[in-house]
Amino acid sequence: PKEVLISDGVLNRGILDAVGKGVGHDQDDDFRIKARSAFDGTGLEFVYPHGCTVSALKPAIPILSSGKIAYPMNRPLGAIWSKGAGKICVLGSVSMFDDKWIDKEENSKVMDFVFKWLRPGSKVKLNT
Fold it and tell me: What pLDDT, on the 0 to 100 scale, is given for residue 128?
């Protein structure tokens, strides 16, 4: 994608929890169960400029996708992997964290997630 707004590209609910947009603990149990089972990738909109898709093979965990609107559809845009104390995050566009794009939509929240997850001793949990 050249410059695209992606509104349904979150592949892991743990990302929403890490940036404070997940299903809150103040809702009742029935609502939380329904919200988790109906997860559709929405909840975090980001602009993806001048990037490419990535091939995320196991044991890597895809975290972002191009969604249903961008072409190619539903392709991974980022993935993470960890083993022991080592961690790596791969994104197809570093430009989304550039000064021109960081304040667009919720790109800063994506950056917050990446930095929180990469930090040694991070408590960020993802659904695997």
Answer: 65
